[in-house]
């Protein structure tokens, strides 16, 4: 049975997706069958792992809402031992759509049934919230990896996450463990980074991974090339740090005998990729993807909003957005307090 790890922290931009993609790729580089599940509507793990989505591709949305078999959503990546279940923007409405579903926190748990046997590790990239999607991930997981950015507010909000983990343990998944707290974007030259490390260790003690993910430009460049860092720059610090993380986890799980150095599957994936880009030379050459370019729909939406006259955004019949809006002149709930406050001032 595969081990399921959720990468979670409701704080945005702390390195969840980076960790999910690169940990999954590093485990797969050791020829250990790995599945990366993207359960964030932003779908950054999907694009960052470089899988090609066809028109017919299904996503985790269909699994959660339309009872699709998860195996029908699995897409192979360019690494032999890494498969991906993609996300898509439809997932945005899932929190609401799940509300009336029976056992709404266990939908992913039930859906994982068949793939648990096929993979040794299943890594889930969670969205930056503690809503139903993250609850589903925590309920379906054996353990949580908590990335914490080495910055001033590192510990802020972690209490809420721990509370949620404890609620999940009590009501949904009694064996949910904390795999570890992972310091990300660490810069050893900064006193702040070192202070954050001390603080995190003070609270989480042996639950802090020995491996620290250093700030490394290759890590941040790799997603724009649709690759885990190991395929983007195998010699980089980022590759080393995420390989170290994979090994730390292997060791705990008694799998320390894996060797990865100059692994054949990495070489093959790099060769395939180079072949592909050689074949594409001179055809549809794109500018170097240093900056994400929004598509035409995005440009249109922005233009529409900018060109909309303000009146159009008001509710023209004067109705208030509350259930009882017969008396449009009545103060809205909460308004009285605001008036009092104004008087006080
Ligand atoms: N070790 C690192 N070195 C340099 N840049 C990094 C590193 N880790 C993450 N980043 C960058 O930080 C940004 C945030 O990372 P990431 O998207 O992984 O965070 P996240 O927690 O998944 O965000 P969200 O909450 O929006 O899902 C990205 O631009 C990523 O490339
Ligand atoms: Mg993310």
TrEMBL record:
<dbReference type="Pfam" id="PF13614">
    <property type="entry name" value="AAA_31"/>
</dbReference>
<feature type="region of interest" description="Disordered">
    <location>
        <begin position="264"/>
        <end position="345"/>
    </location>
</feature>
<protein>
    <submittedName>
        <fullName>Cobyrinic acid ac-diamide synthase</fullName>
    </submittedName>
</protein>
<dbReference type="InterPro" id="IPR025669">
    <property type="entry name" value="AAA_dom"/>
</dbReference>
<feature type="compositionally biased region" description="Basic and acidic residues">
    <location>
        <begin position="269"/>
        <end position="288"/>
    </location>
</feature>
<feature type="compositionally biased region" description="Acidic residues">
    <location>
        <begin position="336"/>
        <end position="345"/>
    </location>
</feature>
<dbReference type="InterPro" id="IPR050678">
    <property type="entry name" value="DNA_Partitioning_ATPase"/>
</dbReference>
<dbReference type="InterPro" id="IPR027417">
    <property type="entry name" value="P-loop_NTPase"/>
</dbReference>
<feature type="domain" description="AAA">
    <location>
        <begin position="3"/>
        <end position="178"/>
    </location>
</feature>
């Amino acid at each position: 049975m595969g081990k399921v790890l959720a990468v979670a922290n409701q704080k945005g931009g702390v390195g969840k997706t980076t960790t999910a993609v690169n940990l999954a790729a590093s485990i797969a580089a050791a020829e250990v069958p790995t599945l990366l599940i993207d359960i964030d509507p932003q779908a950054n793990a999907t694009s960052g792992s470089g899988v090609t989505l066809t028109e017919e591709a299904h996503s985790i949305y269909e699994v959660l809402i339309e009872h699709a078999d998860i195996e029908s959503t699995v897409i192979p990546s360019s690494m032999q031992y890494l498969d991906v279940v993609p996300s898509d923007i439809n997932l945005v409405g899932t929190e609401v759509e799940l509300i009336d579903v029976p056992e709404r926190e266990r939908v992913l748990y039930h859906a994982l049934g068949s793939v648990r046997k096929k993979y040794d590790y299943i890594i889930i990239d969670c969205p930056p919230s503690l809503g139903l999607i993250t609850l589903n991930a925590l309920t379906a997981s054996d353990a949580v990896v908590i990335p914490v950015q080495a910055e001033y507010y590192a510990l802020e909000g972690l209490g809420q996450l721990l509370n949620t983990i404890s609620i999940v343990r009590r009501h949904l998944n009694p064996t949910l463990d904390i795999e570890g707290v992972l310091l990300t974007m660490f810069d050893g030259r900064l006193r702040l980074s070192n202070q954050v490390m001390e603080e995190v260790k003070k609270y989480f003690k042996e639950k802090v991974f020995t491996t620290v993910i250093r700030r490394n430009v290759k890590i941040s460049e790799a997603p724009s090339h649709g690759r885990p860092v190991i395929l983007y720059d195998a010699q980089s610090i980022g590759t080393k740090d995420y390989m170290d993380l994979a090994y730390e986890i292997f060791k705990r799980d008694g799998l320390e005998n894996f060797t990865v150095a100059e692994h054949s599957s990495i070489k093959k994936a790099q060769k395939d990729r180079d072949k592909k880009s050689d074949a594409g030379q001179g055809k549809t050459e794109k500018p170097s993807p240093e900056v994400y370019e929004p598509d035409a729909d995005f440009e249109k939406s922005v233009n529409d909003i900018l060109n909309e006259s303000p009146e159009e955004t008001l509710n023209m019949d004067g109705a208030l957005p509350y259930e009882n809006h017969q008396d449009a002149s009545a103060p809205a709930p909460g308004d009285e307090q605001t008036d009092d406050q104004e008087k006080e001032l």
